Amino acid sequence: MEDYEVVIGLEVHAELSTKTKIFCSCPTTFGAEPNTQVCPICMGMPGTLPVLNEKVVEYAVKAGLATNCEITRNSKNDRKNYFYPDLPKAYQISQFDKPLCEHGYVEIETDDGKKKIGLTRIHIEEDAGKLNHDEFGGGSLVDLNRAGVPLIEIVSEPDLRSVEEVDLYLKKLKSILEYIEVSDCKMQEGSFRADVNVSVRKKGDTKFGTRTEMKNMNSFRSITRAIEYEASRQIDVLEDGGEVEQESLRWDEVSGKTFSMRNKEDAEDYRYFPDPDLVGIHLSDEYIQNIKDNLPELPESRKERYLNEYNLSQKDARIITSSKYLSDLFEQAIKICNNPKAVSNWIISDISRILNEKEMEPNEIPFTSKELAELVSLIDKGTISSSIGKKVLEELFENPRNPEEIIKEKGWIQISDEGAIKEVVIKVLEANPQSVADYKAGKDKALGFLVGQAMKETKGKANPKMLNEMFLKEING
Ligand code: ADP
Ligand code: ZN
Ligand code: MG
User: Fold this and answer.
1) Ligand nearest to the CA of 44
2) CA distance 27 to 149
3) Pocket lining: 228 vs ligand 1, CB cutoff 6 Å
4) Which of 196, 369, 378, 469 is surrounded by the most beta carbons within 10 Å?
């Protein structure tokens, strides 16, 4: 295993969030009743004429500019011919030799420093329909709602060398597409999915090995598992003196193995030719410049700003800016409560932990930036302790509402009344003479224990600063 190097190239498909499909005016909303968002054009009826949706070109150019691509001034659509029951025309309208964008790169930050992953091309194409395999009738039913939904396909160079790099690359790409708002990148809805090409070679070899391809992977976890499995399978084949066959494989999540689907087609099998029903795509310099001038701030630049303006650490800034949603939440919350350090801590520790536990995406966070800001302010003002703050956050995830309301309703307001604090302190001191003696003998840790006991006694509601002071005052007489 150590003698080998794994080589990976990805073809990412992202569904564009245009309102209508790429060649007709049917809506693209996800989850509608089967075959309710279709028309003769996207159902592939003979004699119908496609008309290219201008937004699709704009979004693809945006994606190209955000990933350092050159934009093709004279581009076109081509037919890619193949038959499958989810593709009634028996060809997919895609792009062959003149993709809209070429020669770009995405930069990732590995443990060994920054690395540029080359992008061969970004082209536009239409999605196919979806087959629903009917367990009861024994047949398959086709739903053409997805047929004609616009996609960009982002093809990387075989520049990736490990599952870690693949993970960083996909996350970076996903965040860029989210920032420029061309795709919602919902992996669970298939809006962001990848064909994963894997080969292995002996370290030091200059020639690539033969690759296999796993199609339509839509979770980070399965991509990682599939690459690990496939790389070691290929190494075993080579070690046994065999040859890796170029083929398309299916990854099976349950068994954790890959299975052969078919031998891989080459481009000539598709008989690409320019679609005679569509005109060429000609882009002026002004058109491209205008899109460039209006690109929103990208994650990289937001990250730099967080380092400089708010003094966040590299790591914290990276985690927050990796998601546009988290980053927007951060910026909106600090506008209200003006405490960047505290807001970033909440996002990085407790909010991220809960998202993980609940297997939620950041954009599924149920509370608003205003509610997060109020939580931070309540702690800053000393109305609640940070341990109560954690309980308020849990509550915000369960049943989001104004944090002030939550603490009133739950009776969580911090005890800052001197008399009440003193009462608890005396009670705890009487119950723990040994700790008092320890503290007097120089064991500073004993004070922490006493404060902890008092917190327990007040169910986390005592003002910790006042507790500390009161203990010192009482112990030292
Ligand atoms: P297709 O899969 O449609 O035939 P390409 O031939 O352009 O398309 O290659 C698709 C992907 O395969 C690219 O992302 C490329 O980086 C990757 N790739 C090509 N050769 C190898 C290889 N030897 N090992 C791993 N990935 C590879
Ligand atoms: Zn249609
Ligand atoms: Mg491929």
Assistant:
1) 2
2) 9
3) no
4) 196
CATH of domain 418-476: 1.10.10.410
Q: Is the CB of 208 under 6 A from ligand 1?
A: yes
- Atom of ligand 1 at shortest range from CA of 265: 4
Question: Cα(282)–Cα(75) distance, rounded to whole angstroms?
Answer: 6
Please list, residue by residue across 44-64, b when 16 or more beta carbons sit within 10 angstroms of its beta carbon and e when fewer do.
Answer: beeeeebebbebbbbbbbbbb
154 touches ligand 1 (CB under 6 Å)? no
414 in ligand 1 pocket by Cβ < 6 Å? no
Q: How does pLDDT run across 122-173, given as a tens digit for each residue? A: 999 999 999 988 777 788 899 999 999 999 999 999 999 999 999 999 999 9
Please report the atom of ligand 1 found closest to the CA of residue 199.
24
Which atom of ligand 1 sits closest to the CA of residue 155? 14
Answer yes or no: is pLDDT of 266 > 70.
Answer: no
Give the position, in ligand 1's atom list, of the atom nearest the Cα of 267.
4
Find the ligand nearest to 126 CA: 2
CA distances from 127 to 149, 174, 371 (A): 5, 19, 39
pLDDT in tens, 8-54: 999 999 999 999 999 999 999 998 999 999 999 999 999 999 999 99
* Whole-structure pTM value: 0.83
Domain residue extents for the chain: 9-191+269-287, 297-410, 418-476
H, E, C per residue of 414-446: CECCHHHHHHHHHHHHHHCHHHHHHHHCCCCHH
Q: Which residues have C-beta within 8 Å of that of residue 389, sequence separation ≥ 6?
A: 375, 378, 379
Burial classification of residue 468, based on how many CB atoms lie within 10 Å of its CB (0-12 exposed, 13-18 middle, 19 or more buried): middle
Question: Which uninterrupted H or E stretch holds 449?
Answer: helix 445-457
CB 371 within 8 A of CB 328: no
**7 Cβ inside 6 Å of ligand 1:** yes
Nearest CA to ligand 1 atom 24: 199
